[in-house]
Design a protein that fits this description.
Length: 396
């Protein structure tokens, strides 16, 4: 019977005749479904590409909105990426395909070692191709690993070239001092300059490189100011004219303090200016009050005489709480560790009272610009007096 029905030519025909009545409707429905699927595919494709919404965008207003916002997000992401790339390019743009070191100046004492770690080699070169040379081995020597040893006081250069491509060269300025204070900053943890040590130095040097912009403050014109290079020196030996009154903090100093404060704020720390610029007359009032209260010899250990205060330069800032309490706040170690990245130094470090003439003041920072601040930092945070070989004593 089954065969009969299947082979019966009339039965299928009958069924077709019956279904033909609704066939058009069914075909229309199928077409609609196909059209919907095609539309959905187009929408998905349009979203995936996020570039043109010519087809997907026309379907419904909702889809148009989604597509547009996706495109916007992509554009924003793209511009963020571009900015990041530009910044990092600028940081190392001097020779993008050559050697890159973690520092280009090394400060060592006689008999001590320093090192500049290689962070990038020229194409085709490796650690094995390093060739180190000192311009003056009587001042500093350098071994095959790049360890620089101070021999006698003075300045020279150490160059790094590649055995494979001698046109590739990096130069390091070496300053050897005879001072007795030591620095661990430039010393490798071990004699082996392996990648482990490099990682460490990468970590500490990357962020500051992007900030290496804080310019040196502009020189004050006129007589009565003592400069060492670009650095204005004001201490017990070197005073300023009573008439010098900038009326407030140096604009660059203020700008970079704000950047410092913003960076600190990101770590939940608060850096405020407790005392910035102080005029000659105001300093006279402060100093005389301290003399009345403590006697002049004690007052001289923590308060400057008028004309000898760094605050009169407009380049010094007392942060938060200029008292012994500051040292135990979380802001103190952060300031000591990071202020150089913004062009500041801790002007009166611990244990340097005989050199600076002032007791430890972790809150008093002095703006010198990034280059100088980095030199001080790289030398183990020595004082300006030590760096330039100066005294700080009132004439008796
Ligand atoms: Zn101060």
């Amino acid at each position: 019977m089954g065969n009969y029905y299947n082979s019966d030519p009339n039965r299928p025909r009958r069924r077709k005749k019956v279904s033909k009545e609704t066939l058009r409707k069914r075909q229309l429905a199928a077409l609609c479904v196909i059209a919907l699927i095609v539309l959905l595919l187009v929408i998905v494709l349009a979203k995936a590409c996020s570039k043109d919404s010519s087809k997907g965008g026309n379907t419904t207003p909702t889809e148009t909105t989604t597509t547009t916002s996706d495109t916007t997000t992509t554009t924003m992401l793209q511009s963020t990426t571009t900015t990041t790339t530009t910044t990092s390019m600028a940081a190392g743009s001097n020779n993008p395909n050559g050697f890159k070191l973690d520092k280009y100046s090394v400060y060592v004492n006689v008999g001590e070692q320093g090192i500049a770690y290689v962070q990038q080699y020229p194409d085709g070169s490796t650690e094995a191709d390093e060739v180190w040379k000192s311009s003056d081995p009587s001042i500093a020597t350098v071994d095959t690993w790049g360890h620089i040893t101070g021999v006698s006081g003075g300045e020279c250069y150490v160059t790094l070239t590649s055995r494979k491509d001698p046109t590739q060269e990096a130069t390091i300025k070496v300053v050897v001092t005879g001072a007795s204070n030591t620095s661990n900053t430039d010393k490798p943890d071990s004699a082996d300059p392996d990648s482990g040590s490099n990682t460490d130095s990468n970590k500490t040097s990357q962020e500051p490189q992007q900030l290496a912009e804080a310019p040196a403050p502009s020189k004050i014109q006129g007589d009565g100011f003592h400069y060492e290079g670009d650095v204005l020196i004001v201490n017990k030996t070197y005073s300023m004219p009573a008439s010098y009154n900038p009326g407030g903090l140096d604009a660059t100093c203020y700008e970079w303090f704000n950047k410092l404060a913003q960076a600190a704020a990101k770590e939940g720390l608060s850096m405020n200016i407790a005392s910035g610029f102080r005029s000659y007359d105001y300093q006279a009032t402060i100093y005389n009050n301290y003399c009345s209260a403590y006697g002049s010899s004690t007052a001289d250990t923590f308060s400057a005489r008028p004309g000898n205060s760094e605050h009169q330069t407009g380049l010094a800032i007392d942060v938060n709480d200029p008292s012994d309490n500051f040292a135990s706040t979380p802001e103190a170690p952060w300031l000591a560790e990071h202020c150089w990245e913004y062009g500041f130094i801790i002007r009166y470090p611990q244990g340097k009272q005989d050199i600076t003439g002032y007791k430890y003041e972790p809150w008093h920072i002095r703006y010198v610009g990034y280059d100088m601040a980095k030199k001080i930092h790289d030398s183990g945070n020595i004082t300006l007096e030590e760096y330039f070989g100066l005294s700080s004593q009132y004439p008796s």
